[in-house]
Design goal:
four-stranded antiparallel sheet, Arc Repressor Mutant, subunit A, Rossmann fold, 22% strand, homodimer, five-stranded parallel sheet, DNA-binding
Chain lengths: 233, 233
DNA sequence: ATTATTGTTTAACATTTTGTTATATAATGA
DNA sequence: TCATTATATAACAAAATGTTAAACAATAAT
């Protein structure tokens, strides 16, 4: 369960926010004092922080600025209408989003969810986060290790899958056979790069319509292989 | 320099956005068609994408949804006032931000900057360093080894690519054929400098409109070759 | 233990790239 | 201008690289 810190001196607003967030499965704490809020944020116990701009002791800008030095979690600024100029300043100080009161609770929740999703997407172990990789008809389901082309499922062996997944995880990047060998087989592996070529061939046989004219895994002569996400008409 | 893709059918708005972004040091491309926009976004050549909601062929929601499968860069939705309900939907589909027209150009730029900052912060700043070299219409994508001229992709062989990359990495500098030979072919290479000349020809054939009157790779008689980043009337 | 599956190596073959050469064209300077 | 020199172009030969099938080895399954 995600934990949210609300730094807001108006208790009515703060509780409204908390209630809505709780209804949506979050756990939210309220702090009414700016300096205290910054301290709590820095404990690292929260997944996201919502900060009001006008606060006793330490205003929202300062909190954002200070917190950002040590936190990369989403920081959302909230302020009363009319302080719009500060919007830009808030963003420049390191806030991730800006909401103007009054806002609908639904919007708050949606934004919070969106920020959490993005944060996990970008932080999450490089690829495990996204479950399905898609490149123009090619689908790789990382959870089930299933691969399909235009809806038709294709059986991959372990090495084939690994190699394909690696290429698909780095679309548009060229990798030499040596690079692929050390990436998939391990740095210390003794072996010929021909192995890579053979596996590429086997993958192509399975996923390409015309393996001698590959659509997905391109060969760059003298350079390596590349899985391109470009459609080619 | 960060590259931004603007998917927006209203050319007035698109150009306004582009101009402001360019004034702020970004490079921005415009696509007016939804389906085409998605394709361009998926090439992986952009650091951020701005999408209008109402588009011909493929609307903003679909673009966001599809693009998000393969991209973790910031996706910003833009829409006319009154479509506010969709705000939440856009965010749920994977957008990173939402702007309602009309917005001030300053705000657009501030948000874009903020998104880029966050992205780099969360990605660990690993990417984005010198991924794309640009010289007046000529683009070299070092990750994918793709070269394009005015948006059209051009196929390069390994040696051609190496040579072009070398020249483009040192714009405005003249290199003798001897220098290029030892830089690309190696210090100990036995071979004629004619080889360099021939490769220059081959590159010119691919990237120059009129290879006998080259715009990119100039010949300096008795001295060598130079890739100039200046336009020449 | 036997069989089936998967992975690796080999070698013949096909393809692409690269370098060389010959010839044409253009620039330079007397 | 004309000879001289440098560069451009095209065609070809050589080298490098990639593909493929098939034999062999290793691993997993029955």
């Amino acid at each position: 369960m995600k934990r949210i810190l609300i730094i807001e001196d108006d208790l009515n607003i703060a509780e409204l926010e908390r209630d809505y967030l709780q209804l949506n499965g979050f756990k939210a704490d309220i702090v009414q004092d700016g300096a205290q809020g910054l301290q709590r944020a820095l404990t690292g116990k929260y997944d996201i922080v919502i900060v009001d701009l006008m606060l006793p002791n330490k205003d929202g800008y300062e909190i954002i600025k200070e917190a950002r030095k040590n936190l990369d979690i989403p920081l959302v600024v909230v302020s009363a209408r009319g302080e719009d100029i500060s919007k830009i300043r808030g963003l420049e100080y390191g806030a991730d989003d800006y909401l103007t009161k009054p806002f609908s609770p639904g919007e708050l929740v949606a934004r919070i969810k969106s920020h959490i999703k993005r944060y996990e997407r970008l932080k999450g172990n490089s690829r495990g986060a996204s479950e399905v990789l898609t490149h123009a008809g090619l689908e790789i389901h990382t959870a089930s290790h299933q691969v399909s082309v235009n809806g038709r499922e294709v059986q991959m062996t372990a090495k084939e899958y690994e190699l394909l997944l690696f290429l698909a995880s780095h679309p548009n990047m060229v990798f030499s056979k040596e690079h692929l060998l050390s990436a998939i087989w391990g740095d210390d592996y003794f072996g010929d790069t021909a192995t890579v070529a053979v596996h590429i061939q086997k993958i192509r046989k399975k996923i390409e319509k015309d393996p001698s004219n590959p659509e997905f895994i391109e060969t760059l002569w003298g350079t390596g292989y590349r899985l391109t996400s470009n459609y080619r008409g």
